[in-house]
Design a protein that fits this description.
It holds the Pfam family Polysacc_deac_1. Residues 25-48 are annotated as: Disordered. It comes from Candidatus Avimonoglobus intestinipullorum. The structure is a single chain. By secondary structure, the chain is of the alpha/beta class. It is 37% helix and 15% strand. The protein has helices at 2-15, 52-56, 79-87, 114-124, 134-139, 141-149, 170-188, 204-212, 235-242, 259-274; strands spanning 63-64, 68-70, 73-76, 90-91, 100-107, 129-132, 153-156, 194-195, 201-202, 216-218, 250-255, 278-279. Helix 4 (114-124) packs parallel to helix 10 (259-274) and helix 9 packs across helix 10.
């Protein structure tokens, strides 16, 4: 009987009962990396570009992606912007999935924190999307290889990070996306399917070019001033900036140059899990 009791206690201890939700606080056991979600959508058709005259007829007045954040609820977005996104395959949130969150990072340059971010995502088994530029693609091969191998999406943030509506020629807009995609595809055998406009600046012409090239244009329903690497306020500050604005279907924009974001990320993920949220891949956007 004594042996039976000891065996029962041992089994209970090994089972790990009683762990809290979120990322493990102790040394995590090995587990699979995040895996890409299989998309049910068919492979994109070859690009069907308009003529130069057709693009020239579309409004190219630049608009910044403006929104009014609301705690615990989706932001206020101008109806005109919503209409353009609906017309040209653009997204700022997912209107269909309660308790879904989409984690995205912009990568204009490497500031030493992306490896830490990837470690946290792997530990917590959470997918993300990283929007990269041409210089980043060229110089950060090891990090991008990790992104790909660990199941994350690598998105198109253009070759040179220009304000796209300031490029009057639609062919120049297309080249900024196509050249980066071609370089990425040559190296990794994957075609980029998501783009994010530099500076969040867009126009109808820009959205049309991206859509005709087969991209979903990804804006966001939450962001904060986190991109200034010289003005960081600590992990607690980042946590307090991000978590009050969780809402169903949120696309979260964080900048990977921020030490605050890197240090707060695990707590942010844990808080999301504790409050019933699930992080999803952009491949699940509807």
């Amino acid at each position: 009987m004594q042996k039976l009791i000891l065996l029962t206690v041992l089994i209970f201890c090994l089972s790990g009962c009683g762990n809290s939700p979120g990322c493990p606080t102790a040394e995590p056991a090995p587990h699979p990396s995040p895996t890409p979600v299989e998309s049910s959508a068919p492979e994109p058709s070859p690009p069907q570009l308009k003529t130069a005259a057709e693009y020239a007829a579309l409004d190219n007045k630049g608009s910044g992606w403006g929104l009014k954040k609301n705690k615990g609820a989706e932001p206020d977005i101008p109806d005109s912007a919503k209409a353009l996104l609906a017309k040209y395959n653009g997204y700022y949130m997912d209107q269909t999935k309660p308790k879904a969150l989409y984690l995205t990072f912009d990568e204009g340059y490497e500031n030493g924190y992306t490896a830490q971010i990837l470690d946290t995502l792997k530990k917590c088994n959470v997918p993300a999307a990283f929007f990269v530029t041409g210089p980043y693609l060229k110089t950060e091969t090891e990090l991008i290889t990790r992104m790909v191998n660990e199941g994350h999406i690598v998105g198109n943030h253009t070759v040179h990070h220009p304000n796209l509506p300031k490029l009057d020629d639609a062919a120049q807009m297309a080249a900024e996306l196509t050249e980066l995609n071609n370089a990425f595809q040559a190296e990794y055998g994957i075609q980029m399917r998501y783009m994010r406009p530099p500076e969040g600046e867009f126009s109808e012409r820009m959205l049309a070019v991206a859509n005709d090239l087969g991209y979903k244009t990804i804006f966001w329903s939450f962001a904060y001033k986190d991109w200034d690497a010289t003005h960081q306020s600590g992990a607690d500050y980042a946590f307090q900036q991000v978590t009050p604005y969780f809402h169903d279907g949120a696309i979260l924009l964080l900048h990977a140059v921020s030490k605050d974001n890197a240090d707060a990320l695990e707590r942010i993920i844990q808080y999301a899990h504790e409050n019933g949220y699930e992080f999803r891949s952009l491949d699940e956007l509807e």
